[in-house]
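Run log, item B.
One chain of 452 residues. Sequence copied directly from the ordering sheet:
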Amino acid sequence: MLKNPGSKGVTWDTSAQFSAGDAVLPQLLKEKILVIGAGGLGCELLKNLALSGFTDIHVIDMDTIDLSNLNRQFLFRPVDVGKAKSETAAAFINQRVAGCTVTPYIGKIQDMTGGADGSTVGFYKQFKLVIAGLDALEPRRWLNSTLCAMAPVNEDGELTAMPIPLIDGGTEGFKGQARVIYPMATACFECTLDMFPPQVNFPLCTIAETPRLPEHCVEWASVLEWSRVQADGTHPFPDEKINGDNPEHLKWLFDKALARATEHSIEGVTYMLTMGVVKNIIPAVASTNAVIAAACAQEAFKFATMCCLSLDNYMMFNGTDGLYCATVKHERNPECAVCSIKPVSLDFTPTETLGTLIEALTEKLQLTAPSLRASGKTLRMATGALERATRGNLDKSCGELQLSNGQELSCTDQTLGTRTVLITLSDTTGAAQPEAKAGGASARGLDTVHFQ
């Protein structure tokens, strides 16, 4: 098997000095790898990786085990309900697979710290490979951005060493996908963000006045009733935002939604439905998880052993009507906010407000709460101590803030992790482009790395 050409054309030495066998594979599979998620996909991944010979596996998950998980997350038992998923899964694998050590972490991927400097980047630099089995876009975007920011590149944006690959798996009912991302070399997650359909939103007037579906009642409780009761001062969680992972929040929303459904003679409001609507959960199918986890584990084995070429670079699976599987090569987006070396161009007019500009930027890059800096000064800080101090800038015009055509802004957002994206303003009124200064960013043009 190891005689075949490996990834990027690498071929293992098959002379007498190199013998593929029991003495070699343990060396190839001993590198530290990180699995993110210990749910339906994560359980399958951990089992597959451990049985494939990987000996140093680390797993992150912030959730606890719920009774509804047991039908497909087979590393858990009824006695484990309420326990941390990562710790329970690690203990099960450690007990059942000799020679394999699984190290668990509890918490959000954004909060992990470690390595020599005790930082977030230091934590992820420990690993040879990262495999994600996440169920939401935001953490996947954050992880993709963080690994791209860590990739060793020169000032032309070209890789100078091997980056940490990301193998991403995802399932949605009977559909699934597996992909291999080499940060700053192949299409990253952000390059194909438009592939994911927008979240379904119900009309506010229907939610407020004429609910017809159980989902309408849950949306009413989370969108309208939560804030209304907080404003009345009678809310049990007066200063808290809805947390879909907080059982007390979900119970409150379920009770309110059930009362609303009873009032309008609507059936079908359950605790599971409430959790699904609040967290935008699509029912999981165990067989789909198994197929996608197998594909991801196979790619991990390929990378570790160089036994054959990696997936290039996206595999889709559809089991809705029969079985369909295809491989597609995604190309890098030259205007990607994460892996492109070009700044993002943003149209503006001097008369529009900074708030309007930020709304346009948020929509264009699908951000959450961007912060902006220009010419060494902070225009808007979305969080933290400076949020209130910069709030007044939102109503000021771009002209008042001395923003001009061709000016460069630095943008950060929690979705982009540690990455800073450079924005170039383009005045649609036809103002002249300022003359580039020697050695300045404008003089360097678009072939310069604009990310920090």
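Observations after the first pass:
- The two ends are 41 Å apart (CA to CA).
- Residues 204-278 form a domain with the Arc Repressor Mutant, subunit A fold (CATH 1.10.10.520).
Flagged for discussion on Thursday.
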